[in-house]
Design brief:
The structure is a single chain. The protein has an eight-stranded parallel sheet. The protein has a two-stranded antiparallel ribbon with strand order 1-13. A two-stranded antiparallel ribbon has the order 2-18. The longest helix has 25 residues, at 393-417. It has one domain (54-442): Aldolase class I (TIM Barrel), CATH 3.20.20.70. It is built from 14 helices and 18 strands. By secondary structure, the protein is α/β, with parallel strands linked by helices. It is globular, with a radius of gyration of 24 Å. Strand 7, helix 4 (157-162) and strand 8 (165-169) form a beta-alpha-beta unit.
């Protein structure tokens, strides 16, 4: 008879390492940093959380019910006109893809020049951003939109008259309800002079315009801008995506030629992470609400709609146009095209590793969101006189041109596949959604059904 071993050896009990959903490693890290320093996190770029996006939509390409166009023989037009409502000189663009407002201060003057060069070669527009107009930017940009922000930093009536359009910025997708930030390490003598600020001191912009407290005052401000420009150029109104339906209606009522809606995936040079991740609604939902507002006012086609916030590819552009946008605006994608988060930079005719710069910031290529520090390893979001040399304006412009050209080719390819000879003929009927959330937000049928969640039907 076998006897039990008195000193049997048992394997150690395995302890589960299941991560808490509510208190995961990221949340614990946040709590411990807050406890240690008593400060909230400030960072650049956009939201990192997964939200319903254009990736959750697909096109219904032509086959029997619709006839596709031959890509090599049949043209697909991309001309886009913005500001037809009141302006004597609407903005005419070769493509419906524009550069979003990114300030000198946030970006170096060399980067602003690269954006202007690329926009001119592509036949599209670029935008000043907060902090005023630089000579490099105006000289290199054929079509330049001048932003009027709550801060009034760098606001100059003479520069205003040099612009091809004016964009009144009420809010930004990354931080609706909050003002811009520019930390002291990026306020060099030139930035300080343009913004009338002390050098090296943190700057926080106002969260609302001092010239108005409501839509009636906005009417007066737009009238003032029209008078100073003799009604020549379009007036845009840009809102961060929150109460989009009513905001768009009020902007149109105030006299806007163009409404720009910036979704929560939009980027920023610097703001609180709490804003970036927890304020605003996704671009997909914002676009649908903006279109509904224009349709209800019978202003669709009379007031143009520009959508921004997480536009990355030609497929994103095509889906935005199909849902009702007239054009899109790209910010973060442009930075990545110039080398943001790249592991090397081009200088003095050779490639150089940027790894050491990322290590000093405690990050790595592909993970960097340290635009606010002014220590950009590839010379884009910096005012450091040595670091900014890492971005050559000509090379940056060439990369931007390639990126936008690629997006435009993808856009026209998808339009032809849907049987359209003009990208502005893309329509909602060309799209279906892959998830319940996207279907409900975009008010599009779930793929394989006629069902739009929340709208009834089977």
């Amino acid at each position: 008879m076998n006897k039990p071993l008195e000193h049997a050896v048992h394997a150690p009990k395995r302890v589960s390492r299941e991560e808490s959903a509510g208190f995961d490693r990221r949340t614990i890290d946040y709590i411990q940093n807050a406890a240690a320093h008593g400060l909230y996190e400030i960072r650049g770029l956009g939201a990192k959380r997964r939200v319903p996006h254009f990736d959750d939509l697909v096109f219904l390409g032509a086959s029997v019910t619709r006839y596709p166009l031959e890509g090599y023989r049949e043209k697909c037009h991309t001309k886009t006109v913005l500001g037809t409502r009141f302006a004597k000189k609407p903005v005419e663009l070769a493509i419906p893809i524009t550069f979003a407002g990114m300030s000198f201060g946030s970006l170096s003057a060399r980067v602003k020049e690269a954006l202007g060069r690329a926009a001119s070669e592509l036949g599209t527009s670029t935008t000043t951003g907060d902090g005023g107009m630089t000579q490099e930017e105006r000289r290199s940009s054929k079509t330049l939109v001048y932003q009027c922000l709550p801060s009034r930093y760098g606001f100059n009536p003479d520069d205003l008259r040099k612009a091809d359009a004016i964009e009144v910025v009420v809010g930004q997708g990354a931080k609706p309800g909050g003002g811009g930030m520019l930390l002291g390490q990026k306020i060099n003598p030139r930035v300080a002079k343009m913004r009338t600020l002390p050098e090296g001191i943190d700057q926080r912009s106002a969260c609302r315009h001092p010239d108005w407290t409501g839509p009636d005052d906005l009417v007066i401000k737009i009238q003032e801008l029209r008078e100073i420009t003799d009604w020549q150029v379009p007036i845009y109104v840009k809102v961060g995506a929150t109460r989009v339906y009513n905001d768009v209606k009020l902007a149109v009522h105030a006299g806007a030629d163009v409404v720009v809606v910036d979704g929560m995936q939009g980027g920023t040079a610097a703001t609180q992470t709490a804003f970036i991740e927890h304020v605003g609604i996704p671009t997909l939902a914002a676009l649908r609400q903006a279109v509904e507002a224009l349709e209800e006012m019978d202003m669709r086609g009379k007031v143009q709609l520009v959508i921004s916030g997480g536009i990355r590819t030609g497929a994103d552009v095509a889906k935005a146009l199909a849902m009702g946008a007239d054009a899109v605006s790209v910010g973060q994608g442009a930075l990545f095209a110039m080398g943001c988060n790249h592991d090397s930079y081009w200088q003095d005719g050779a490639w150089h590793s940027a790894e050491a710069g990322y290590e000093q910031l405690g990050t790595a290529p592909g993970f960097c969101h340290h635009c606010h520090t002014g220590r950009c390893p590839v010379g884009i979001t910096t005012q450091d006189p040595l670091l900014e040399l890492r971005l050559d304006p000509a090379r940056g412009a060439a990369h931007l041109k390639n990126y936008f050209k690629t997006m435009n080719m993808e856009l026209t390819t998808l339009a032809r596949a849907c049987g359209k000879s003009n990208v502005h003929h893309l329509e909602r009927e060309d799209l279906v959604a892959l998830t319940l959330e996207a279907a409900a937000m975009a008010k599009l049928p779930l793929a394989g059904t006629n069902w739009i969640p929340g709208a009834g039907g089977l």
